[in-house]
Amino acid sequence: MKNKDIVHQLKKFPLLASLNKRDLEDMKQFIYWRSYHKGQILFMEDDPRERMYLLLDGFIKLEKSNEAGSMFYTDYVRPHTLFPFGGLFRDEHYHYAAEALTDIELYYIPMNIFEDLVRDNKNLLYDILNHLSDILALHEERLKRITLSHAHDRVTQAIYYLTESLGQKESNSTVINCPITAAEIAKISGTSRETVSAVLKKLRCEGVISQMNKQIMINRPEYFM
Q1: Angle (deg, nearest 10), helices 21-28 and 111-120
Q2: Which of 83, 89, 118, 182 is most solvent-facing, going by the fewest CB within 10 Å?
Q3: Model pLDDT for residues 2-24, shown as the tens digit of each residue
Q4: Residues 74-119: pLDDT tens digits?
Q5: How many helices (H) and strands (E) does the chain have?
Q6: Residues 82, 125: contact at Cβ < 8 Å?
Q7: Cβ partners under 8 Å of residue 164, min gap 6
Q8: Which of 46, 93, 92, 97 is nearest to 71 (CA)?
């Protein structure tokens, strides 16, 4: 990956689709490649907001803690996604921490360079605004679905959220390739790991999902609607 053509790789990012080859060539000179092993930290909450990251391969977990030190926000980043957008043009520090959930490869560009690029390209700014609107809509739907009273429903709706944010269509099912554990789903849904395990077992028995090699395959997406 390190030696592959950077412009070719940048074209795989949907958010950069409005940039022409000259724009990408200009961007290329400020791009740096890095790899991280599973569990490595990219940045911590309140670290200086110095880099915009472009994930090439693997998955990243974003987390924010409250004053008591417990996690109250968790999100995930999949390949060919730019992050973070929190505080763009405004804040000096990251809003949350980022951890490699798997081995990953990525590019990064200095944040001030990226912000200058956005200022000079109205189409890119428009695409970013649309992207942020999509993120907001997804999280509004997430809040609506996982603030249910019944623990079983919160777990199933957490799986729905993961399907919407990380799922990839493959033949007759949608696959969540990101290695999400029962503990991760429990954190998202505000339930216990035991509850999540029981719900996953029930969904497997009913043929709603399948699990293999830490992947979740959604066989009946209509179940979560």
Answers
A1: 160
A2: 89
A3: 445 899 999 999 999 999 999 99
A4: 889 999 999 999 888 999 999 999 999 999 999 999 999 999 999 9
A5: 7, 12
A6: no
A7: 138, 141
A8: 97
